[in-house]
Amino acid sequence: xxxxxxxxxxxxxxxxxxxxxxxxxxxxxxxxxxxxxxxxxxxxxxxxxxxxxxxxxxxxxxxxxxxxxxxxxxxxxxxxxxxxxxxxxxxxxxxxxxxxxxxxxxxxxxxxxxxxxxxxxxxxxxxxxxxxxxxxxxxxxxxxxxxxxxxxxxxxxxxxxxxxxxxxxxxxxxxxxxxxxxxxxxxxxxxxxxxxxxxxxxxxxxxxxxxxxxxxxxxxxxxxxxxxxxxxxxxxxxxxxxxxxxxxxxxxxxxxxxxxxxxxxxxxxxxxxxxxxxxxxxxxxxxxxxxx
Length: 292
Fold this sequence. Notes:
By secondary structure, this protein is an alpha/beta fold. The protein has 2 domains: about 1-115, no CATH class; about 125-290, 3-Layer(aba) Sandwich (Rossmann fold), CATH 3.40.50. It has helices spanning about 15-30, 55-70, 90-95, 105-115, 140-145, 150-165, 190-195, 215-225, 235-240, 280-290; strands at about 1-5, 35, 85, 125-130, 170-175, 200-205, 225-230, 245-250, 265. A 6-stranded parallel beta sheet has the order 6-5-4-7-8-9. A 3-stranded parallel beta sheet has the order 2-1-3, covered by helices on one side. The protein is globular, with a radius of gyration of 19 Å. The termini are far apart.
């Protein structure tokens, strides 16, 4: 048996967890491989290493996230690692059909891990919207190259449209980072009734212990009846754990985030002939029919 692990990344929780999940998925479909979990060394955005802070201090925050994700530590002196990666499994990440790897069996495995440890209360709202901000601003190099920033006007139009597809009593939580003034224009033109349904849950960039911190936001996304993802590894991995309805906002070029799972509904697919809201599996079937 070939022991395989992911180690060495120090970026955000979503990207690190996505890399780990890809290794688990690969091993689930490769009989000669066994996934061995290496605990996170550090997680960015306030949950790991900080300048002039003792490791014994910041490590507590990283360990809290390690406990939160629920994957048991598989490393010991008696366990030999044969293959170690950092940035995700290439076969999984390069497959334009992630559900080839994330089938029911694999999804059950990662969800069982997640639910094996203590969690916050489930989301009190029905629809959760993730708006990626914080480190993601329209002037940053990352935003220009990976096209992960989405302006307020997009959410202004899309949130009412998605809300209209669900029962009138469905409430909405919007998770992001920043000050309320940065998001006010999203509600331009909205009815009073729609505005009253919304709870804004704004965290602070690099603040790990606020009311709407990373753990609360992630679990809200996992437990929502409806999740509208951002172009973000954070809400992408939360979508894998969500057992309800997930809306995938296409266009992210980051590895492991380009393609949705089969059952996710797609918004703004690159092909304009496919209407927003159809599942990825339906899009694939439409493409196949067009080639027949």
